[in-house]
TrEMBL record:
Calcineurin-like phosphoesterase domain boundaries: 255-424
Highest classification ranks of the organism: Bacteria, Bacillati, Actinomycetota, Actinomycetes, Propionibacteriales
Domain of life: Bacteria
Database matches in SUPFAM superfamilies: Metallo-dependent phosphatases
Keyword entries, A-Z: Membrane, Transmembrane, Transmembrane helix
GO molecular function: hydrolase activity
Record's keyword annotation contains Transmembrane: yes
Organism of this sequence: Nocardioides immobilis
Protein name: Metallophosphoesterase
Parts of the chain that traverse the membrane: 118-138, 150-171
Entries under Pfam families matching the protein: Metallophos
């Protein structure tokens, strides 16, 4: 028997490898799953090739599905949540929907990770039979080929295939959860009735229409809230693009300061629009991004990180960011927190910060726990003054409550203290020391328009506040405050030059 040319043999092996790898990767992909925090739920995400996004909400609310826009589909099974009532849960959905890009990106990232993992595993698994075939040698391969048409050969192939499948395939079956009865899907418009005006982006959404009338009313109310909130914040973001803000001069660096978002993800797009209009390159987050610091509020942190993913970012935790979750989560998403040391800040400045000591589990100073607000204030001043004496002056002190920086200012060890906490703008106010040095304290309003610990809703509950800090020659040079009224209109304060 004449031998095939070497290049033809190699080509055949590559083709077989790719074919086997494709089959294996497809199997791995369709049996993959990830658990992620989505829309304040712990959710199980599984991919498929239905071309649909299906959200399994549980026994009370209707399941939802829509077109994914591609061959790849996904099923999202919502798990546990901390919502105390159905009304609270639907209100959350409406608020999250007003800026849902971060949640969509999170699920998309999970699907991409599963796809990449499946391809890598498929390529590796597909290579094993090729390597085995090559290592057997020509004589042994000939013997195997001769035995393939026999019962023994077929049985051997089946055993090998079953072993490989058993070792590599998760035992949950293909696709999502099986259904005992055929699913009856109806359009969302049919489900809620003609009295509810649907936004254009919900026109193709379908639901399983087997829920009670009270649930229909809750869904209809959530749709109204979603539409109102989405329009309100989109209009505000559009208006922000036309604000008359001071433009940075050559050599200046502008930083957006925000605080007290309290889960209002709708305002994130407005904050971004203000930052872009003002020429900001970085963000200071003075804390209270959440209401409780619990894991269900990951949607708020995802939105913040997604909105400013291309900015330099520094943050501290506020008194409502209880525990360590908020800090660790945002740190993983690229935000810089502080470990009691002066670090590089924007515009060739030096910055120091500390988490609010009233946050449960936070406020430790150099490994000392249970310190009071006054004690942390004193330790913070000592650290700033020690750095100043060593020639490493703190240009900006970032805290949640500006009162935490009072002592550092009064001792003349920092140039600018910025924070939030009160939900009301104050300053910039000069603070003069006995020897004539001047520093400034500034408190920004609530970026989430929060009247309480949580700012989920269709509109602002109170005026929202943002600020643009300008740095020049490595020092804070000025501050301009921006207020978003509850009507969606803007009030821009004059730019205040810092001495």
């Amino acid at each position: 028997m004449s031998r095939l040319p070497g290049w033809l043999t190699a080509t055949a092996l590559v083709v077989v490898w790719l074919a086997l790898s494709t089959l294996a990767a497809t199997g791995f992909f369709l049996t993959s799953e990830r658990t992620v925090d989505v829309a304040s739920h712990e959710a199980r995400v599984t991919p498929d090739f239905t071309g649909e996004v299906v959200v399994r909400t549980g026994p009370v609310l209707p399941d939802v599905r829509t077109d994914s826009g591609s061959l790849v589909g996904v099923e999202i099974e919502l798990g546990k949540t901390d919502a105390r009532s159905l009304q609270e849960l639907t209100a959350r959905y409406a608020a999250i929907g007003s800026n849902s890009d971060a949640q969509i990106a999170k699920v998309s990232d999970a699907v991409r990770e599963m796809a990449v993992d499946a391809v890598v595993r498929g390529l590796a698994l597909g290579l094993l039979p090729i390597l085995g075939w090559v290592l057997l040698g020509a004589r042994r391969r000939g013997e195997i080929v001769e035995h393939l048409p026999t019962r023994r050969g077929v049985a051997g192939l089946l055993v090998i295939a079953l072993v490989v499948i058993g070792l590599t395939t998760p035992w949950r079956g293909l696709g999502g959860a099986s259904q005992d009865q055929p699913e009856r899907w109806v359009s969302l418009a049919t489900f809620v009735g003609p009295s509810v005006e649907l936004p254009d982006e919900l026109a193709d959404v379908e639901v399983r229409g087997d829920t009670a009338g009270e649930t229909r009313r809750l869904v209809a109310s959530a749709i109204d809230s979603y539409r109102e909130g989405r329009e309100f914040y989109a209009d505000a973001a559009e208006a922000a693009a036309d604000l008359e803000l001071r433009e940075p001069e050559e050599g200046e660096t502008v930083v957006l300061l925000l605080s007290d978002r309290h889960d209002n993800v709708g305002m994130d797009q407005v904050a971004r629009a203000v930052a872009e209009r003002g020429g900001a390159e970085a963000v200071f987050d003075a804390g209270d991004d959440t209401s409780t610091g619990k894991e269900w509020e990951a949607f708020s942190l995802d939105s913040l990180a997604d909105t400013f993913d291309d900015y330099s970012r520094w943050a501290v935790a506020g008194n409502h960011d209880h525990g360590t979750f908020v800090r660790s989560y945002l740190t993983d998403l690229g935000w810089t927190y502080f470990d009691d040391e002066v670090i590089d800040g924007p515009g060739e400045t030096r910055i120091l910060g500390v988490d609010d000591p009233r946050s449960s589990g936070l406020g430790n100073w150099r490994d000392e726990s249970d310190l009071t607000f006054a004690e942390v204030r004193a330790r913070l001043a000592d650290a700033a003054c020690e750095a100043d004496e060593d020639g490493d002056r703190v240009d900006t002190l970032l805290v949640h409550d500006a009162n935490l920086g009072d002592e550092a200012l009064s001792r003349g060890c920092v140039d600018l203290v910025v924070g939030g906490h009160t939900h009301v703008q104050a300053g910039p106010d000069p603070v003069r020391t006995d020897d004539g040095e001047v520093g400034y304290t500034y408190t920004v309003g609530t970026a989430g328009g929060a009247a309480y610990a949580i700012a989920i809703g269709t509109k602002l509950r109170r005026a929202a506040g943002l600020a643009l800090i300008t740095y020049r020659d490595g020092e804070p040079a000025g501050i301009q405050s921006v207020t978003v009224e509850t009507t969606g209109s803007f009030a821009v304060d004059p730019y205040v030059e810092l001495e």
